Predict the structure.
Amino acid sequence: MNAKMEKDESKALYEKRKVIVEPVFGHIKNSGFRRFSVRGKEKVGGGGGFSLVCATPNLKK
């Protein structure tokens, strides 16, 4: 991984990640969402919870 990250194109791609992806997860955590209150992939992925959490930053914009 270190050798891969030494390339200029890898560094440029990683720089974009800080701007595009990471702030969204930071906003989600700062808004109070820290963990699921249910157990199992079926219940977590089953519709309402995380989808609503993911939609919130888009609505705030």
